[in-house]
Amino acid sequence: MMEKAYRPQEDIVTLMMQFEQEVKVAPELPDAGTRLLRARLVFEEALEFVRSCGCTVTMSGSSGDGPAVIDGIQVVLDPNGTPDFTEYVDGCIDQLVVTYGALCAAGVKAQSAWDEVQRSNMSKAWPHCSVCDAVLVRGDGEELVHPEDGGAHGGNWNTVLRVHKREDGKFIKAPTYSPANLKRVIEEQIEEAHSPASV
Asked: Three-state SS for 21?
């Protein structure tokens, strides 16, 4: 049996077209009604996933079981909740559906945005020398260089990525970290959508 190609965004475009939902051809913020609908869908599916984990949502101070996720909202284990693996998987997939739908409603192609976020996330790891474990630094451009000038180890070293953590387990971003430039990705997609070759 041949496996079907994994094309989630294309599948969601097909779904949205079938149900007569607007799919923009170029990146553009959707109207207020669409934004509200998309926000509600994403929030609903996120909450269903939280429940599938046997967890619940509380306000900070009401249970004291951990740090706030955002704006005083905590996600904590629900003493009456029961994790459900099937619902867990369903929750993950439903979140992908509504997230890809939100991107399609805004005319954003996920792949290039994903690639940029992945690049940024990977830059959080600390680059070390494979020979002496020294932390590498950024050169004049984007390249990583050994902190010892003059061809350290005769140039016979590679980059090894390592994770640095605080005592509480939180990751520490590398000094070579670079944030995702999604503004550039969106501008490139707008330019591509309006180029004569794509019209």
From this structure: coil
